[in-house]
Specification:
Layout: H1 22-33, E1 56-60, E2 63-65, E3 68-71, E4 76-79, E5 84-87, E6 106-111, E7 124-133, E8 137-148, E9 153-156, E10 159-162, E11 168-172, E12 190-198, E13 201-210, E14 215-227, E15 231-234, E16 237-240, E17 246-248, E18 256-264, E19 278-284, E20 296-305, E21 318-322, E22 325-329, E23 334-335, E24 344-352, E25 364-372
């Protein structure tokens, strides 16, 4: 008998799984789904956090029995005896009474679930907070189509909306003034309106309306060239003066003044003549010789320029220009709130013989206190 040698065996290939490979991930998920044990290399895998959803009910009220609300068409009841009730259509409104919730209102309630399943049906869940969207309330947003002062109404989305004494108003008109009532509305303004509806019609609860601005505020300084009862020429610029113009310091021809004016902005493509700007204020700039260096100085003036600030509530630190004077404001300076470019102020400070930040023609003043006039 002749023995024939068998061919040599191929070397055994070692396979090390890569947990990040798609095939391995699929196998892991399959094993977990089937209840099998995951391979050892997957036991240390970190699962993503699972979001926690607090017990809540979002439904329409079908029946009201005192503090007990039937929702889900009677399949569940909510006890709102100790719940904080707020209005979803107007979060700024005060807390609502229980009697404000009527059938048809939508409620979003956070509830607590008892540990013991109640024996009665339907189950009653106590609510801790309830946000109510009343059945007869809503919001309209769009462009105002017309206003009827005689009827006390305006039209929005082809709906006639009535305003009454309880309607609140906010927003601004094209000239920048505030919207305070129906008379401030005009066709073309944008509006967001919180409303209530009943068989008599739609009534506005809150109206926020605004128009595209047609004016901007500009300030400049110059010498008074001429004056009339209605027109002043200041530094070659003509401004209108009316009963609302605030004139400070009794400026005369030849005096240096600071002007704050309202300039009309014409819509693009309009070729009409530009309206002469209207002066909001004209303030005389007192010209005083600079005090000797190292001496205390006080003066009234108008803020002409300010350095940038880190936040709207912080004081601009650095060099201010007040009626042509170079004023250095530091962290030690006491500054009244609300001072902006164009504000009239009273300055108390110390003069320095040499400017700290940059050479100047006049001695620099380190402000100790700036008070708004």
């Amino acid at each position: 008998m002749t023995l024939v040698p068998s061919p040599p065996r191929p070397a055994r290939q070692h396979f090390r799984p890569n947990p990040s490979a798609p095939v391995v991930v699929a196998l892991l998920l399959s094993a977990l789904a089937l209840g099998g044990a995951a391979p050892a290399f997957a036991q240390a895998a970190i699962l993503p956090p699972v979001a926690y959803f607090p017990p809540a009910v979002d439904s329409v009220v079908s029946k009201v029995n005192g503090p007990i609300l039937d929702v889900l068409d009677g399949a569940l009841q909510i006890d709102i005896t100790n719940a904080k009730i707020t209005l979803g259509d107007d979060p700024s409104a005060s807390v609502l009474p229980i009697t404000a919730i009527l059938p048809g209102s939508r409620v979003v309630a956070q509830v607590t679930v008892p540990d013991v399943i109640p024996a009665t049906f339907p189950p009653v869940l106590p609510a801790t907070s309830v946000v109510v969207f009343l059945a007869n309330s809503g919001n309209l947003s769009g462009v105002i189509q017309g206003v009827s002062a005689a009827q006390g109404t305006f039209r929005l989305l082809d709906v006639t909306v009535r305003a009454d004494a309880a309607t609140t108003w906010s927003g601004f008109k094209a000239d920048g003034t505030a919207v305070k009532g129906l008379s401030d509305l005009s066709a073309g303004m944008h509006a967001n309106v919180s409303i209530t509806a009943d068989p008599s019609g739609v009534t506005a609860k809150n109206v926020f309306a605004y128009a595209i601005p047609t004016t901007r505020i500009v300030s400049f300084s110059g010498k008074v060239d001429s004056e009339t009862s209605t027109l002043w020429t200041i530094g070659g610029n003509v401004v209108q003066v009316n009963a609302d113009t605030k004139i400070v310091g009794n400026p005369q021809v030849g005096d240096e003044v600071e002007v704050v004016e309202r300039v009309q902005i014409l819509p693009p493509g309009i070729g009409a003549a530009t309206t002469i700007p209207v002066a909001i204020s004209i303030t005389k700039i007192a010209v005083t010789p600079p005090p000797p260096p190292g001496r205390t100085v006080e003066f009234d003036g108008v803020v002409q320029s300010l350095p940038p600030t880190a936040s709207p509530s912080s004081v601009p630190l650095g060099r201010w220009t007040i009626s042509g004077k170079d004023v250095l404001v530091t962290a030690m300076t006491k500054v009244d709130p609300g001072i902006v470019q164009g504000s009239s102020v009273h300055v108390v400070g110390l003069t320095l013989p040499i400017s700290i930040l940059a050479p100047t023609a006049t001695p620099q003043i380190v402000a100790l206190q700036i008070t708004k006039l």
